[in-house]
Specification:
The chain has about 210 residues and is an alpha+beta fold. It has two domains: about 50 residues, no CATH class; about 110 residues, Head domain of nucleotide exchange factor GrpE (Nucleotide Exchange Factor Grpe, Chain A, domain 2), CATH 2.30.22.10. It is about 40% helix and about 15% strand. The chain has four helices and eight strands; from the N terminus they run E-E-H-H-H-H-E-E-E-E-E-E. A three-stranded antiparallel β-sheet has the order 3-6-7. Strand 1 and strand 2 form a beta hairpin. The chain is elongated. Keywords: Chaperone, Coiled coil, Cytoplasm, Stress response.
């Protein structure tokens, strides 16, 4: 009688396809196999500007991209500084000449006072006090506008004509005056804080 062969099967064991016995590890994964780990891919979306920024931060100083980025940065800083200086300068100039339009509107008052004083010749004694009052009013008014930086342009008969502050409205021929000298002041001129507000209108002698 043939003997039956008893095949011992380990209690905790398994056979693989080749009939070899392998055991399970502590985590329940059969030995001899590799655990496959699948990592989820994370999709990152960056704008073109962000990519350039990352590139500029990562490249070496000698890279052309770095040099270009540094040049752009320096130009931006220079432009910002120039803009700041220009705005400050414009702000200061605006404050300095804030009353220019008001003072320009007051100039006809001075013109009329000057005109009144220019025609005081031959008046009787009864009008002298009136003339003195007009002259005092003119001086007070001129002192008031001087407090705001307004000054009269120097223009007198016999003075040299200066095209920077004088405006020639005509010419005359007077032998007692030299060439290019002022023969008559038609209208006074004024300067506001170093800037010409209105030139003095004069007649110029041409010998």
């Amino acid at each position: 009688m043939a003997k039956n062969k008893n095949t011992d099967v380990p209690i905790n064991g398994l056979y693989d396809e080749e009939g070899k016995i392998f055991t399970e590890d502590a985590e329940g994964t059969p030995e001899g196999t590799e655990a496959e780990v699948v990592e989820e891919e994370t999709e990152v979306s960056l704008s073109q500007e962000e990519l350039y920024a990352l590139c500029r931060e990562s490249v070496c100083p000698e890279c052309d991209v770095h040099k270009e980025a540094e040049g752009i940065r320096l130009r931006a800083l220079a432009d910002a500084e120039n803009l700041k200086k220009r705005l400050l300068r414009e702000n200061e100039e605006m404050k300095k000449y804030a009353g220019e339009s008001v003072l320009a509107d007051l100039l006809p008052v001075l013109d009329n006072l000057d005109l009144a004083l220019a025609h005081t010749g031959g008046l009787d004694d009864a009008c002298k006090n009136f003339v003195i009052g007009v002259d005092m009013t003119r001086k007070i008014f001129l002192d008031a506008v001087k407090g705001h930086g307004l000054e009269a342009v120097q223009a007198a008969v016999g003075a040299e004509f200066d095209p920077e502050v004088h405006e020639a409205v005509g010419t005359v021929d007077q032998s007692e005056l030299g060439d290019n000298q002022i023969a008559q002041v038609v209208q006074g001129g004024y300067i506001l804080k170093g800037r010409l507000l209105r030139p003095a209108k004069v007649m110029v002698n041409k010998a």
